[in-house]
Each structure stands twice: as structure tokens, then as C-alpha cells.
Amino acid sequence: MDLIHHRPPVAPRSGGQAVTDPVYLSPPDVGELEESYLLRAVRTGRFDPDGPELGAFEREVAARVGVGYALGLSSGTAALHMALLAVGAGPDSVVVVPTLTFAATANAVTYTGAEPVFVDCDAATGNLDVDLLSDLLGRLADAGRRVAAVLVVDINGRCADYDRLLPLCAATGVPVVEDAAQALGSTYRGRCAGTFGRVGIYSFSHNKIMTTSAGGMLVSDDDALVARARHLATQAREPVTHYEHRDIGYNYRLSTLLAALGRAQLSRLDTMIARRRALRDRYARLFAAVPGTRILGAGDPGSNCWLTAVVVEPERSGWHAGDLAAHLARLGVESRPMWKPMHRQPVYADRQVALTGAADQLFATSLSLPSGSALTDDQVDRVVGGIAGFLGGHR
Ligand SMILES: *Cc1c(COP(=O)(O)O)cnc(C)c1O
Question: Positions of the region Disordered (predicted)?
Fold first, then answer.
């Protein structure tokens, strides 16, 4: 099941009272500024991808993250698909994918005809386990498999362990594709998420750090790679007037109107990140003295804190993550476990895997808490008060 992207029903009643103000995990943070940008874009009368908004949005994102080229696409999933094709993923190749991720990461691999091979995560951060990756790349090489890419995900906005990952992948000659769908605005050693691999992607889905309702972007310093992705994403139409096609193309460009929405959101990105970080700090203080609990990936000043998840060891805490979830649901507050790992998904059940059990453990013990920058102070107080009430009853 898609564990982040749909709103599960929050309990409609609490103490016999209808909850009129449900609190969601990561609602869109969109207001008058976005309205004015969108209206201005409509009034230009330009609705084609060559209109002024899309090119401007691409240049602004590229400048923001410090990369040479950016390509606006209809979703993060489309961006992943284009990135993977651009690095040569296809039938007769494999792509290494973390098992703890949203299904889009693995699905994009499958679209290319390549085979996803799943690798477990580091328990402290939820990011790809580099030791396991090292073993796996060795085994794949011994088996004569062509590894088209290692697809790395920056979970909940925390960058993966690039100090170790990049040399490993460079030594084996495998390109890194960075799924920074959740990590726009995050940094690692001063460098922006999305820029660590040959190519990276962002998502502007409705619940991401910034949104265009639906949208995504591909970024790279490789001019030819981005040009190839742009070509494939624009129906692979050759630059002649008579509609010549030498490749199977896709209709994947971002709407220029949505690019205008993105420009407004990008101008507010730092403010939105600051709000999410403040929320994480508040949760960290709340759980600091609670035995058997920790904040996933805590202590990373570069994270954009897209979602904050608490991890609960029931043997030490005396309660389960699910108990807190049920309590919050009664208060009209949404929370949910991290994604069910890909190797547990019926559709990917028979794939090759390299596992330690860490992703299964996180799935069983984690709970993502309301983390959106659009949450009002009152809503945050309600969530924090609800958790404090729960904890008080479980001392
Ligand atoms: C959101 C997300 C995607 C997909 O992005 P869409 O814009 O929804 O297509 C891919 N990977 C990860 C890790 C995501 O969180």
C-alpha cells in the first residue's frame, strides 16, 4: 500500500464530537503568492512548454541547488524514468534500489525493462546500507550482471552516506542516480541533495517539501544527458517540421502553469524548511526523555526535515508505535508507518534482495508524525498535546 501519498481516514469523532479540523502529515503550503504567480502565468496566454514560466523555473531550481541543467517534468516518477533511461537502464540490466522507499522508485526501474534488486537500509537513518551495497555489487559483478545504476534515496530529506557511497560506486563504474524526491533544499557537507549522482530528481507532488500539485524535475551537470532526457520527454520529436521520430518518446513535460506555481513555492522554500525543522526540534524535545524512542535520522543539520518519524522499541517503551497512531487518530491527527518495504510488496515478491532486516524493523516500529510547514500553531499544539497525553498515560 502507498503509505504516504493518500490520506487514510482519520477518526471522524473524538469524545462524541466531530473533528472539524483534521491534522494531516504534510498538507500543501500554498497561498496568495502562489495564486498571484499562477494568475500571471494564465494571463501570458502561453500554455506550451516553451512558454516563459517553465524555462525560468528550471533555471531557478538549477541555480538554487548549484547544478548546470534542470528539466521540468510531470512528476518525480517521470523524472526517475527519464533519468534511468538516460544512464542506460533497460532490459538485460539491473538497478540497485533501496527496499525502504516509496514504490515509485522501484516502478521507474521496471518501466525501463531493467530489473530492480533490493538492498536493505541502515537502521539509524533509513538510508541505503553501504556495506550491504558493497557486497551486493561484488556478487552482481561475479554473476556477470550489468548494473545500470545504483538508485539512492534520501529518506525523509536526510542525505545518504555519500562519503562512502560515491567512492564505492566510482570504483565499480556504476553511475549513481539520486532520488531526492523528498530532499529538495537538504544539504550534505554543504552540497545540495539531488546533485550527488550523474543525475538527480525532485518531486513536487502535493505532500512534498514544495508542491506544484503534481510535478517533478531532473537535474544534472551533464549537458548531453539532460538534452537526451528533454528529447525523450517531449515525444522524441526530431527538430524538423514534419514530425520525425527515431525513438519512442513520452509526454512528460511539466505544465508551464504549474511551473509558475513552482516558482512561487521555490521563493518560499527556505521559510518552509525552517518551519519543518522547528517541528522536528519540538518532537525531538518531546521524545528526548522517553525510553525506547528515537527520531529517525536525528542530528542531521542539513536535512530539510520533510517528514519526522519516531521509532519505538516496544520492549523498552512498553507501548507500540501503533498504539500512539490509534490515540492520535481518535484526536483527528494523521500519522502512519514508513513504507512497507519493496521486497514485502506482492508485486516485487520474487526479486533478488540483500537484507539485514532493518527495513522490516523500521516498517514495524516507525510512525511518521505531522510535519508540514502549513500546520498552524494550534494544530501543532494539538498534536504535541495529544502525544504528551498519550505518553503521560504510559509512564
Ligand atoms: C514522492 C516520491 C516519488 C515520486 O514522486 P511523484 O512526483 O509523486 O511521482 C519518488 N520517490 C520518492 C522517494 C518519493 O517520496
Answer: 1-22
